[in-house]
Amino acid sequence: MTTEAVGRLAPTPSGELHLGNTVAFTACWLSARKAGGTVLLRIEDVDRSRARRHIEDDQKRDLEWLGLTWDEETPPQRHRDYGAWLGALPDTYVCACTRRTITEGGGNHPLECRTRGSTVGAVRYALPDRVVRFGDRVHGPRAVRPLEFGDPVLRRKDGVFTYNLAVVADDIADGVTEVVRGADLLDFTAVQVELWQAFGATPPTWLHAPLVRGPDGRKLSKSHGALGIAALRESGVDRRAIHRVVLGWLGIEGDDLEAAAQAFEPSAIRTAPIDLPEDWRSALDLR
After folding, report:
1. Residue by residue, what is the 3-state secondary structure of 107-148?
2. Is residue 97 located within the same domain as residue 122?
3. Any residues with CB less than 8 A from the CB of 240 and at least 6 apart, and which?
4. Are residues 271 and 214 in the same domain?
5. How far is it, in rounded angstroms, from Cα 166 to Cα 183?
6. Is the domain of 246 the same as that of 106?
């Protein structure tokens, strides 16, 4: 029996889409389309203090302009209840540690917190102390000890559920079979594999697209306004020029998304970060 490929575009509406987002979203779209699968759109706004509805609308408009269409929009995180998911997860505990105490302790969350019996604070998941092995479709086999990241927070002290829980619960509920995202989350995948398995679910496949860094050496964000998709569009850049650049970073020549879907091959994607120079517009030939 075969399982249909299900990928998802999952923007967080806290900042405009930029070239860095576009790399991962394009890789997601190409992977699902090549497999004849489904592309979902899910708005990841679990932290409502950061989410903005007008940005959500802008992001959808940018994705449509780029041709990164979806087959179905699933409920946004603001309409989902994660309480039952948290209740079904074993090995959770309440942590009263503050950022200050963790910083003063060298930046690592103390494992003895698991047995303190705190009743007020954040809820964490007690990770097993073992090496997790998983495969990435670009970077190959990985072996990571997830406990090096510390026990993940699932619900903050203020009651807000976190990305750590929401993204796994959503992917399981939505039937996602392949996760495509930026390489900055490559090794953190081991933590999410543990959560998938704790829920008794089979983890998806993983593909981590190259990270794009601005001329300042930092990962692209909303602070790099000129590299935003809306800013590029409004300045007269043809979307085919954006496709040509992004597809090139994914190891594909040309500017046609449909043709690129057939040529898509994860092993051709570069593993190194993409560092944009000061004269990035000329270097990328964005016109």
Report:
1. CCCCHHHHHCCCCCCEEEECCCCCCEEEEECCCEEEEECHHH
2. yes
3. 255, 256
4. yes
5. 20
6. no
Statement to judge: residues 12 and 34 lie in one domain: yes
- Identify any residues that bridge with 136 across adjacent strands, giving them in sequence order: 140, 206
CB 86 within 8 A of CB 92: yes
Closest CA to 115 of 145, 133, 95, 88: 95
pLDDT tens track, the chain, 287 positions: 346 999 999 999 988 999 999 999 999 999 999 999 999 999 999 988 877 889 999 999 999 999 999 999 999 999 999 999 999 999 999 999 988 888 877 788 888 999 999 999 999 999 999 999 999 999 999 999 999 999 999 999 999 999 999 999 999 999 999 999 999 999 999 999 999 999 999 999 999 999 999 999 999 887 777 789 999 999 999 999 999 999 999 999 999 999 999 999 999 999 999 999 888 878 888 86
Amino acid at position 10, single letter: A
Count Cβ atoms below 10 Å from residue 37 Cβ, excluding itself: 17
For residues 176 and 204, is the Cβ–Cβ distance under 8 A? yes
Q: How far is CA 282 from CA 77, 208, 236, 267, in A?
A: 39, 27, 14, 28
In Å, how far from its chain's centre is CA 116?
A: 33
Is-above-0.85 flag for pTM?
Answer: yes
Domain containing 135 — which CATH number? 3.40.50.620
Which residues constitute the domain of residue 89?
83-155
Instruction: Note whether 223 and 246 are within 8 A (CB).
Output: no
